[in-house]
Amino acid sequence: MALSETIKAGPAAGKLDHIPGHMGLPIFGNTFEFIKDPFAFHQWQRERYGPIYKVSIFGGQTVVLRGADALEYVLMDRDKNFGSREGWRLLQQLFPNGLMLRDFDDHRSHRRIMQVAFKPKPMQDYMLRLNEGIASNLTAWAPSQRFEFYPAIKNLTLELGASVFLGLEMGDEAAQLNQAFVDEVAASIAVIRKPWPGTKMRRGVKARAFLLEYFRDMIPARRDGDGDDMFSQFCQAKSEDGAFFSDDEIVDHLNFLLMAAHDTTTSALTTMIWALARYPEWQDAVRGEVMALGTEQLDYDAMDRLELTERVFKEALRFRPPVPFLPRFARRPFEFGGYEIPGETSISVSPGLVAMSETIWTDPTRFDPDRFSDNRAEDRRHRFGWSPFGGGAHKCIGMHFAIMQVRAFVHQFVQHYRVALPEGYQPRWQTIPIPKPKDGLPVILSKL
Q1: Domain for residue 56, yes or no?
Q2: Which of 134, 140, 183, 340 could make a disulfide contact with 203, Cβ separation 3.0–4.6 Å?
Q3: Domain span at residue 289?
Q4: pLDDT digits (tens, 9 = 90+) for 296-315
């Protein structure tokens, strides 16, 4: 079988001829340029072709729509034209029935059932688990002149996810579970899309099979129990007509949600700690605000009092959003920006590129949490100027949980540790599929 057969065909030849852009190499298109530096790649395309252009990435032709107006138009999707499932075609072998890959009425019905796990009472219970898990893990972090923060926080968020989502304490299987999620995410941007032996896709497909079987074995006990973890709530939640999720639906939702919560929160916290290390004046300000609360652990009802901490976190998400690009699939033709876009076309919009737009943000390459203060409020200049959690029907269902987890961690972390960067340190980040430091983010960790 030719390598070209491993890549899903794009739109019919010629139907995007009127859209500016260059499709790159045969078979591989612009894939390698995009992987090397996605933001630089799109900046070059924007300068050459304008705010609307076509690219060929991972074997599919895509029309890129740049800007906050494009984000709003596509994500709000008032005409129900932009499908998420076909848009996220790179995930279909790995997370085929996760919430993000469901559309319209099907998506709405599943989301409605899952919302029960994110109501105030469960969230208060999750906060107790988060605080306990963070306290337990932080005591094991030893001061060091070279503490690799990324793997440490990745292990911690997996522990927290296992506790909150699964009601488990991680034991010997923690490393295997962590590796399984790593393999799934890595497979999402594999150039070879067939699960051939030795390929990233093969490892990702095997990881999915392992995780689904791991979750499936626990379902009977969760259906019969009265646990307050998210897994138990999914097993017991009912639709409006009284139907439960099937076993297959439960494991698919868990596989996707645990991966998404685990990896995106890890990325966001890594960026925030890098920022606190890079800008010690902000670290001192956050620590002062936390100390003023006078509590060792963050109380659920006190979260909104961390206003300055919230601004720093928002700026970290603007600076390096965990999901910088959002794909969709146009089922029918539409017009945008003076171009007629044909139906059955892949579309891409980008919260990450909008977050660096000079038309919305003052000096966007500068880390400046005060841009979120009430007197500046740069994030209110456009409804979709700051949208790291997406928007519309597919806005991240776990947004408030993720924010709560970050606040709980930072609240405890800054009370016990000071963090700094080694002299002359220059970060090197992998941008896709989820941003992470290539070197693990080595920091100087010291006890207060």
Answers
A1: no
A2: 183
A3: 67-447
A4: 999 999 999 999 999 999 99
